Amino acid sequence: MITHVATAASSSSSADELTTAIVSLFWIACVVAVSPLVVRLARGLVPDVVVLLVLGCAIGASGLDLASTGDGVELIRELGLGLLFLMAGSEIDPATLRSQQGRHAAVTWLLCLVLGFALAWAFIPDADFQVALVLAIAITSTALGAILPILQDRGLGGTALGRAVLTHGAMGELGPILVMAVLLGSRSTLSTLALLILFVIIAIAVTVVPRALVLRVPGLRVALMDGMHGTGQTGMRVIFLLLLTLMAAAAVFELDVVLGAFAAGFILRELQPADAHFLEERVQIVAWSLPVPVFFVTSGMSIDIDAVMERPGLVVTFVAMIILVRGGVVWLRERFGVTGSGLTTRAERYQLALYSAAGLPIIVAVTELARERDLMPEDVAATLVAAGAVTLLLFPLLARFGGRRRERLATRS
Are 410 and 369 in contact (CB under 8 A)? Predict the structure, then answer.
């Protein structure tokens, strides 16, 4: 009798959780559908991801309290985060990272990290190493996955500026991910390094084995290509298998899942057949239809509006730190160094600095990690995420209009 009562209670609880998840997804889907209309009404001045964040705040616990992030919503959110970093990783050419421009971008990010750590140490009273590192990672990151659509919409994808943003953005995502994995993990640094090496071995195996199978198994490549356009969608299924394999490996090793997603993007670029560029478009369609918007909406839902409104000066301080530490160092390196970027005008360097300083996904990830480990108070974490949202709204906007203005002035002179 007791067993039956417990089973019935468990079933009722599961049904309630499912209902809550479905209702929450309904409101999130409403936000996702409305967001492009808001962007159009704003004439493209406000990025879609910022609209998703703001509307997420509106339907979250700090707003109308229409939606919550239970297990079902959280799973879609993690998938969206993974797809966001997979797309960012797939845009990066390893040859670019090994080039002069890539090496200078890596050094630039390290300088940003050192400066950010020093400012964080001075800014936070009684801060220990990990707290200062959390803030340093947050203010030196670049939201490459969110910036790429903006660059494409503005026709900058194949330009020298677009390539420079891509290179600095890659370092602004890869650097924080690696530092988070090695220095902010729950294990010792040596244990984490050992697991990181094991993860790299798995990633290499994931790269080599499928390629070897395609080359050695007769008819396998033809079968894969034939199935890409039908209901089988073999290409997309393999991409999701690749993504979830490396995300699962990162999760099992207690590394951040974004490391697995970013690695999956690198590998996808290497494994993708030269005649299968349509897969990139399909990945973008699937990712931006629901999973990636869910990530940004739920990020907005997690922001404590009251905490942010109580400390507006802290938001301004964080935004100033981001533009100084990330944007300022990038601008100085481009202005006074030989970086190989090919940028020749002040307008281009100005735009590069602003695009490189726009950050959010890494800020969300590192603040969530900090809250889980009690390294950062909830109100400070919410304020830092809000500052990241401001950079993603303000900096691309300033880059767009400031770049145009500087170009006009250069043309007149």
Answer: no
Which H helix or E strand runs over 158? none
Q: Which amino acid is at 84?
A: L
Q: In the numeric block, which tokens belong to residue 211?
A: 């390629």
DSSP string spanning 49-114?
HHHHHHHHHHHSTTTT------HHHHHHHHHHHHHHHHHHHHT--HHHHHSHHHHHHHHHHHHHHH
pTM (2 d.p.): 0.83
Say how far apart CA 50 and CA 56 lie, in whole Å.
10
- Tens digits of residue pLDDT in 242-288: 999 999 998 888 888 888 998 898 888 877 776 667 788 888 899 99
Query: Which H or E run contains 190?
Result: helix 189-216
CA 23 – CA 27 distance, rounded (Å) = 7
Q: DSSP letter at 268?
A: H
Which residues, 6+ apart, have CB-to-CB distance to 234 below 8 Å?
A: 223, 224, 227, 228
Tokens representing residue 151 in the block: 């660059």
Residue range 114-152, pLDDT digits in tens: 999 998 888 777 667 888 889 999 999 998 888 888 888
Domain count, the chain: 1
Burial class from Cβ neighbours inside 10 Å (0-12, 13-18, 19+) for residue 7 reads exposed
The residues, any chain, with a CB within 8 Å of residue 60's CB and separated by 6 or more, are 67, 300, 301, 302, 303
Q: Which long-range contacts (CB under 8 A, 24 or more apart) does 327-330 make?
A: 327/353, 327/354, 327/356, 327/357, 327/395, 328/353, 329/108, 329/111, 329/112, 329/115, 330/108, 330/112, 330/168, 330/356, 330/357
- Tell me how far apart the alpha carbons of residues 119 and 132 are, in angstroms, rounded to a whole number: 8
DSSP 8-state assignment for residue 42: T
Find the domain containing 77 and state its range: 3-412
> What is the domain-level CATH number for residue 280?
1.20.1530.20
Q: Which of 286, 218, 208, 294 is nearest to 26 (CA)?
A: 294
**Residue 231: count of CB within 10 angstroms of its CB:** 5
